Amino acid sequence: MSRKITLWLCALMLVLSAALVGGCGGGGEKSGEESKSAGEGGEIKVGIAGPFTGAIAETGTTIKNAVLLAEEQVNKAGGINGKQVKLDLQDDKADPKEAAAVANKFASDKSILAVVGHYTSSTTLAGSPIYNRVGLSHIGIGCTSPAISDAGPFTYRDITSDSYDGEFVANWMIEEGFKNIAVAYENDDYGKGLAEVYKSKIESLGGKVVAIEPYNLGETKDFSAILTKFKAANPDSLFIAGQYNEAAMLLKQGKGIGFKLPVFGSNGLYSDALIKLGGAEVEGLRCVGAFHKDSSSQEAKDFIEAYKAKYGLEPDIWAAYAYDAANILFEAIKNGGEDRTKINEYLTTLKDFNGATGVTSFDQNGDCMKDPLKLIIKDGKFALYQK
Amino acid sequence: MDMFFQQLVNGLTVGSLYALIALGYTMVYGILKIINFAHGDILMIGTFIGLVLVTKFHLAFVPALLVAMLITAIMGILVERIAYRPVRTADKLIALLSALGVSIFLVNFAQLVWGTATHPFPANIGGDPIILGEVHIGILQIWALGVSLLLMAGLHLFVNHTQMGVAMRATSYNVDYARLMGINVDNIISVTFAIGSGLAAAAGILIGVYYDAVYPVMGYSAGLKAFTAAVLGGIGSIPGAMLGGLLLGVLENEGAAYLSAGYKDAIAFALLIIILLIKPTGLMGRNEQQKV
Amino acid sequence: MEHLARFTLNWRNKTATLVLLAILLVIPLLVSNEYYIHVLITLGLFVILSLSLNLVSGYTGQLSIGHAAFYGIGAYVTALLMLKLNVSFLLALPASGLVTAFFGLLLGLPTMRLAGDYLAIVTLGFGEIVRLVLLNWDKVTRGPMGLPGIPAPELGTYIFMSKTPFYYLVLVLALLTVLAMRRIVNSGFGLSLIAVSQDELAAEAVGINTLRCKISSFIISAFFAGVAGGFYAVYISFVSPDSFTFMDSIMVLEMVVLGGLASIPGSIIGAVVLGLVPELLRFMAEYRMLIFGALMVVIVIFKPDGFWSARKRTRNAIMKDLVARNMLDGKTVKPRGEVSESA
């Protein structure tokens, strides 16, 4: 018996030490990298947190493409203050739990100067307490929940809050003459915040929300119960506050049970993936977005051209937001130096940054204001909406 | 009332799919007395095979369905040979762990090959829904219901009116006696896995088409529900699995309409617990003559 | 002679334990990389979880596949107490244990009528219902958004900022769990639990209140899982329903079974091995979980009794005892599944 116990304890220790050695192997590699770059005069490290896999991995890919483009451009132009920029991409899977882990990783890595991320409102809210605790500035790129305004002094976003977008869509739909509206919203910070703002605006304009139903991002696949409830409420139009995946499924399943209405969507629907997944069922869908290839700004045109040259694809709106966020941080590091506090000081005073998504100026909450564009899906493509 | 009938139709559709999957659980349990936790993931692989056949090989829907069922049936046999047969005599928990290993393996295999994103299933089954009053019955719903009823009828005939079916029932009744009667138990187990996996592939493809969504973790929720249905009906009983599936589908959909859509799954599980507490062997368990 | 042997055995055991303890205590001083500390903290959590499940599924023999629900309830109770009521961590942690213990009582009640696979399904249903309530009761739990910004624990004026204090905290909690479990399983109550797992009817016949045994083991098990959940909440600083899924329950069960049912060292080894393997496989990147799944199948095929099975061990010991007394011929009678000395 005793031999066995000793043997097991030895084995346990062996495993433990193997873990450490194995881990050290990985760690050694990393430090090797660091020392190599230090030999070249050091590098500037910026963290990128995005949904590179998971329910909205398509968006993650365009974000990745865009920030890598920004990295390439800045390094070609000589880097920042003579140092090359190195991005550290971490996958948050659009999952708040993963986002907290990623945020902890960035927060404890002193060489990370600032972070682009996260993409969804929920991941941003999961990460922001951690960033704010250690004083690491981060710029959210798709997170539009009103709650993010109060997330802390180190939290910024280059996208407009829903309290603005929700009212914008509400106005638009009332203008178009819709009165009895069904609302499907993603049950998270993004969809819920948007649906609330939207509902009160519609009601203040004399319209009515006749049915409102939540669904869960990446989890709800069966929309039949929601659709049946909508049908029973007899609406004249539908507003979807969510992402493209669920929107496509909702509309395709709706067709099966004879649910066909004019549909409006939030900016989460503005992705070519919506058209790919939804096919004929999303034709005529109207939504908002802050960036379109037909828009007139020079920055937007340059960005689209560079992106197309590098990847052979049209960038989507999230690519543009990610690209702008990365460039804003590069600008901040250029001015503030390699110091997390100074970088944040610069960001609080950022005024009139011209980027692909328009002009960005941060207010005291780290929010910015940009007028969205009205868009419609026409012949399988997003086009600027004209009445 | 329209909402009631619409949800009844929706519930029967989903319920018939649950029943198809539940059959796989119940048949394996009947013979081996183990819960085949990899069943849902075999379903998922079957669905992806169907998707590949439709999108890459441009097969029409029905041939794709049949070929996918066949391939998945073979896969089911292989999974049993590799992961279950070696631990058949060991503790039941060990077989459970082996099944979980297979489950983890299959999900990650699918994620490597097809990515983590959700794929649409372009089945090209068009047509307008049938309208009865205010109730719409979609073409896809008719397909799902029709195919699953057809398969269940086929299984019923097979189990009750073929020699192999009789041997299966005998094995389920008592493995040792069956062996003494000259039944090749190993073969029976292989056939059971093949049938269960084939039915799962069919159910998976129908689910994929119905929701227009195929993704690597789809087996988890489908499997869990079907498993619930199998227990609800009395695990080990074939008619029980069918009844359990349909009942679960209808009850959870009506619950979703009148209570809350978010609590739909919670309704299903609460129901399961209540029924088990009242009748601990499920609705048609134990006393049921017809067992596989 | 025999006494001497036993003494040396105990002494060697104790030394080994002390050495291990010493190593565990100095690790944070030697290891500077936060990632390793993080892995060790996770292992500590796994140890508490697998030990607590082992009481129900190993010793009492009640298969439970909803253990993550207790873990989740504990995490949410701590999170809500600290966020909404500003309760200090020192109070919130035991409170979440107690609240979870109450749910353990609830889940223990169905054992009145159900056993085996059917009981397992009820535990599964319970686990799913808890997750779905966390997901849909968004006024309190914020649904899928989870609860962010859970404050770091404070002990007096000391605030947990780095990973090291969390490491020592989880070490203390894990050691307390080990000691508590040892006390429990070595007591008369523990023997009753084992009796229930072996033969419930016989246990009843010798006057054991089997229902009380089963419910008590659920309550105790839930308490420890709840405490682990509370620790998790403050450590990650964020809780959401998807951290407490069926797969998490299954992982814990796997640790218990793979380690060896009804064995305290077994549960610890199971937790350490199954917690470490995915981390060690990290270099394989996307192939990691694929290999992990395959490994699981291979391990159960070649080691179906777990790494450290108490049942088999006891039997071996008895057999050896008999052999030693020349009552049996050691060569002809060999218990099935004996763990060979060279293992």
UniProtKB/TrEMBL annotation, chain A:
CDD domains: PBP1_ABC_HAAT-like (cd06349). It comes from Desulfocucumis palustris. SUPFAM superfamilies: Periplasmic binding protein-like I (SSF53822). InterPro entries: BCAA_transport, Leu-bd, Leu_Ile_Val-bd, Peripla_BP_I. Residues 43-365 form the Leucine-binding protein domain. Keywords: Amino-acid transport, Signal, Transport. Residues 1-21 form the signal peptide. GO terms for biological process: amino acid transport. The keyword Signal applies. The lineage of its organism: Bacteria, Bacillati, Bacillota, Clostridia, Eubacteriales. Belongs to the leucine-binding protein family. This is Branched-chain amino acid ABC transporter.
TrEMBL record, chain B:
The keyword Cytoplasm does not apply. It comes from the Bacteria. InterPro entries: ABC_transp_permease (IPR001851), BCAA_transport_permease (IPR052157). The chain crosses the membrane at residues 12-32, 37-54, 60-81, 93-115, 135-159, 188-211, 231-251, 258-278. Keywords: Amino-acid transport, Cell inner membrane, Cell membrane, Membrane, Transmembrane, Transmembrane helix, Transport. GO terms for molecular function: L-isoleucine transmembrane transporter activity; L-leucine transmembrane transporter activity; L-phenylalanine transmembrane transporter activity; L-valine transmembrane transporter activity. The keyword Flavoprotein does not apply. One of its GO terms (cellular component) is plasma membrane. Its main location: membrane. It holds the Pfam family BPD_transp_2. It is found in: Cell membrane. One of its GO terms (biological process) is D-alanine transmembrane transport. It is a multi-pass membrane protein. PANTHER family: BRANCHED-CHAIN AMINO ACID TRANSPORT SYSTEM PERMEASE PROTEIN LIVH, HIGH-AFFINITY BRANCHED-CHAIN AMINO ACID TRANSPORT SYSTEM PERMEASE PROTEIN LIVH. Belongs to the binding-protein-dependent transport system permease family. LivHM subfamily. This is High-affinity branched-chain amino acid transport system permease protein LivH.
